[in-house]
Amino acid sequence: MRHWRWPLALLLAAAAVFFLVLPAEVERHYNRVLPVPGRPPSARALDLHRRLRIVDLHADSLFWGRDLLVRSDRGQADVPRLIEGNVAVQGFTAVTQVPRSQNNLRNDADSDLVGWLFFAQLRPPRTWGSRLERALDQARRLRDAAARSRGRLVVLETAADLDATLARRERDPDLVAGFLGAEGAQALEGDVSNLERIRSAGFRMIGLAHFFDNAFAGSAHGVAKGGLTPRGRDLVARMQQRGMLVDLAHSSPRTIRDVLAVARRPVVSSHGGVKGTCDNPRNLDDEEVRGIARTGGVVGIGHWEMAVCGNDAPAVARAVRYAVGLVGADHVALGSDFDGAVTTPFDASGLARLTDALLEAGLSVEEVRAVMGESALRVLKQTLP
């Protein structure tokens, strides 16, 4: 039997690296926080920041398998850091498919790296091949964290939930509310009827497309980059009837035009930038920003270089200021994309740096309040059932 010991030991060591080390190192590589340069936020900014009701529409933290209740030394968001950053409401989005060699110009839907990552994270076997089950598993992870949090994390499903949580935060700011979103309608696996399963699991926002075209809509990064399909039109109508936010982030220009033509309630772009300060296929042009505002919705400004053509808080503030100049602060919000395989100039605990940068960029206190949270709160209150 001795001749089996070394091969068995090597096999066990390789398994330990694959399951215990590799997922964490992959996340550490993709979700980096840059060293903080320069002076800390001003006293004026810190005082204002403590009094804000902050909403971030988009973070992919559920994707990586971390315990959200534990402050991590990797990634960009977890409950302790969200509380330290004074975040009142965080959108947690479920990533369900990532194409091989993902890029911002052209991706097909024929490859998928998520199954391997979920296998390495020891997620349930039903998630290894099903995009719907991946979304439902990430929803369960958020609910499990909330159940273990002793009230520090609350899951929002209704407008009443939101009002109750905001009232609680007046007395105890050490809590954060989360709502669920899906990063791309491929989570429905081509079947509009799966919307009811997603909604019952607590999802209140769905991005129509991610990095590739799907059965419902074209992506800005897809092959055909088409518009809404007949199933996509049905999906948009059902979502707006059922109190779910239609998210245009990553959507192709044709999809955006199609949605704006039929929208009867506010729509959002949960995370991204504006071509006025950062011209690339990922970002919205002026007319798209105005169109989203006309529905009563908001544009969430991201915190990474592809969104704002810069890697510091002033770059984010420049994009915010441009969008505010187009449509007013009531239609501009935060969409960090924390833990979305991006490098950011601060993590969730460092959001006071953005408050400081917005004041330095010339926004008024009321405009800062709107952008940092009040605009998104208005849309959530108008949309949630």
Describe the protein in words.
With 385 residues, this protein is α/β, with parallel strands linked by helices. The protein folds into two domains: 1-30; 56-383, Metal-dependent hydrolases (TIM Barrel), CATH 3.20.20. The chain has helices at 2-30, 43-50, 79-84, 114-120, 131-148, 159-171, 195-200, 230-241, 253-262, 286-294, 305-308, 313-327, 352-360, 365-383; strands at 54-59, 87-95, 153-155, 176-183, 203-207, 245-247, 268-272, 298-301, 332-334. Strands 1, 2, 3, 4, 5 and 6 form a six-stranded parallel beta sheet that branches. A three-stranded parallel beta sheet has the order 7-8-9. α8 (230-241) links the parallel β5 and β6 (245-247). α2 packs across α13 (352-360) and α12 (313-327) packs across α13. It starts with a helix and ends with a helix. The model has no long low-confidence stretch (mean pLDDT 94).
What keywords describe this structure?
three-stranded parallel beta sheet; 2 domains; 385 residues; TIM Barrel; alpha/beta
Task: Detail the topology: elements first, then pairings.
Elements: H1 2-30, H2 43-50, E1 54-59, H3 79-84, E2 87-95, H4 114-120, H5 131-148, E3 153-155, H6 159-171, E4 176-183, H7 195-200, E5 203-207, H8 230-241, E6 245-247, H9 253-262, E7 268-272, H10 286-294, E8 298-301, H11 305-308, H12 313-327, E9 332-334, H13 352-360, H14 365-383
Parallel strand pairs: 1-2, 2-4, 3-4, 4-5, 5-6, 7-8, 8-9
